[in-house]
């Protein structure tokens, strides 16, 4: 849906001067109102936890709970306490997931905030740059669906996260250092394909390897919080004085993809080692305290 934003922004900007309000103000007013309205509507449709749902029969609910229990043993939410929060925060892998999300979000924020500016730097007019900001999102739909499908089919995450990070890395390199404007524009397609595709991949990777609702709540909050920092970083490193190439900002995004790849390698090695030791019966207790649980690599 991010690809629609530039088109909406262009349409709303045509209201410039209406009721004495500037075009950019109309963008904030209308898109903000839509967001608030959808938030209110979603409240009535988002389902509760499986044990609290209001649309399944008792037998269907029991089946869902049994599947969750067989899968990871946390069908019923456990209470969140201060002690649990600090205990979960002591798990370095949660910080790794959050940092991975920060790294991939950095290129996404850069794309969302600055692609029209970058396109203007490539020689396009402001209006044409806004319209050309939408196409790079189109291939992302196909690549995200493909990598989601193949990772579920193979029950493997890490390698596909790395592949998408490499795709984004190529795109960032082309946009930063290529001399031909068309090649630089091609790079934005690859940036999106890699960065946006890794958002669900990393969130799923983290979710697969966390047991208990309290730990998942801490992991989700930490991941989203660190991801939000990427927006602050993006607004800092993409400076107007660096136009038209914005190489400092793009270089930071390139480095972030390298950090992401390193972190995936570290967690994969760590989880593979623990899985092996668990299968060999060399651990004092089950992984994540759940008998039969193994980490998803």
Automatic annotation (TrEMBL):
This is Major facilitator superfamily (MFS) profile domain-containing protein. It is found in: Membrane. GO terms for cellular component: membrane. The keyword Membrane applies. The chain crosses the membrane at residues 24-46, 94-118, 130-149, 161-179, 185-206, 218-238, 250-269. Pfam families: MFS_1. InterPro entries: MFS (IPR011701), MFS_trans_sf (IPR036259). Keywords: Membrane, Transmembrane, Transmembrane helix, Transport. It is a multi-pass membrane protein. Its main location: membrane. One of its GO terms (molecular function) is transmembrane transporter activity. It comes from the Eukaryota. The keyword Transit peptide does not apply.
